[in-house]
Amino acid sequence: MIRSLVIVLFSFCFSVGIYAESNVIEECNQEWVCLIQTKDEDGIQLSIRNHNPNPKVTNSVLLNATFVNFKTDISFPYFVVVKGPEPVYITKFFLEDRTKDAFHSFAFRVRPGDWDSVHDDSVSYLLPFARGIRAKVVQGYNGSVTHFGSFANAIDFGIPVGTPVHAARKGYVMATESKYTEGGFRKDLLSKANFIIIQHEDGTLGNYAHLMKNGVVVKVGDMIEAGQLIGYSGNTGYTQGPHLHFEVHKPNRQLEVTTIPTVFKTQYSERDTLKELFMYWHPRSGIDPIKADILEEDIQICKLNSKKERVQCGETSFRLGDNFLVSLEFVRPGTHRIELDISIEGKAFEAMKLDWVANKNLAIEARYVSITSNPKFTGRWKVRVQINGEEKKILFFDVRP
Fold it and tell me: Which of 119, 120, 328, 146 is closest to 239 using CA atoms?
């Protein structure tokens, strides 16, 4: 996730005696905002504007000032929301004693978005990936790993590196990052995730994070339609594995992120609140909502390496001494009795039987089997899968010497 997009700038200025002539000084910080100081014989007028001239740009600014021999009618820190390209008047600092030296300095912090924005709760977001993709929520709202506090209303979708990421809602690209390569569960990687931030019409922001290196295909200033391709998922930043982090947020008065609950269009509903360990996809007319807890395509034989790590699923050919996994990925978690009958066609061996009850808190169930390095175990293997007493699928694969 993105912990901070706060920009800090210090501007120092000294003045001695009476200003001899009017002048304007403008100091800008990257693509965020610019401070405008207009000086005359009475003092300094301070304004602020967005650096980006696009009329849809909105930034929240926390402004601080230190001054000697000046007075003003506002107190600091001062909060202001800057919308569009026009300068926003802040105040005028009046010189108190023209015979004495005067000093002033300004510091500001910026976060994209409007802290006074009100989320349009009538919006139903699109799932942030392409049609035809099915993705499981690996960490949902109030998740125990990272989704708590300010980030309580964030969602992590478990999708492979390189999966196309699509905009969940129409908006304007406020910020992007795509230079990072590394990901891991280390605090030093908190600020090193690639991301795209899109500002919505109501002033809130959509954050798509942990994208792959060079995995951003839009640029700041682009207007994006809902469902448009914007990038590719990855595994950068503070992460335990490949996934797409999505949140809608706005800044608060402390310039911290405040995430906002959202609903999505899914196979279940036009306004669905996503749940952890459930699998979701874009609704298919005439097919959804499904009533099954598991789809046939999610019952697979997978190949394992020597460390018993899954390396490939859908395998139909193994060798003696290989390990395989019978994998069942449920659409939603629940308590299910699973029975596997494993046999070799034409061989008078008693079928191997595996029987267990699925943990209701899990969405993936699996059992692995080692193929003995004995020639009598070559041939065509058959795996009969039953769930809650109902036959769901028969899998076949060949074992060679």
Answer: 146
Q: pTM (2 decimals)?
A: 0.84
290 located within any domain: no
Beta bridge partners of 264: 125, 272
Check whether residue 253 and residue 145 sit in a common domain: yes
Domain assignment present for 291:
no
Three-class DSSP labels, 161-192: CCCEEECCCCEEEEEEECCCCCEECCHHHCCC
Both 135 and 272 in one domain: the answer is yes
Q: Judge if 266 and 137 occupy the same domain.
A: yes
Same domain, 83 and 156: no
Is residue 2 a part of any domain in this protein? no
331 and 265 fall within a common domain: no
Which range marks the domain in which residue 301 is found? 296-400
My answer on whether 195 and 258 are in the same domain is yes
Q: What is the CATH number of the domain that holds 373?
A: 2.60.40.1930
Print burial letters for 161-195: b (CB count within 10 Å at least 16), e (below 16). Answer: bebbbbbbbbbbbbbbbbebeebeeeeebeebbbb
One-letter identity of residue 386 = Q
User: Six-digit token pair at 217?
Assistant: 């295909």
Q: Are residues 143 and 273 in the same domain?
A: yes
pLDDT in tens, the chain (401 residues): 444 444 444 443 444 444 444 588 888 876 689 999 999 888 999 999 998 888 888 899 999 999 999 999 999 999 999 998 899 999 999 999 988 888 888 888 888 889 889 999 999 999 999 999 999 999 989 888 888 888 899 999 999 999 999 999 999 998 899 999 998 888 888 888 999 999 999 989 999 999 999 999 999 889 999 999 999 999 999 898 899 999 999 998 888 889 999 999 999 999 999 999 999 999 998 888 888 889 999 999 998 887 777 888 998 999 999 999 999 999 988 899 999 999 999 888 888 999 999 887 778 889 989 999 999 999 999 999 999 999 999 999 999 99
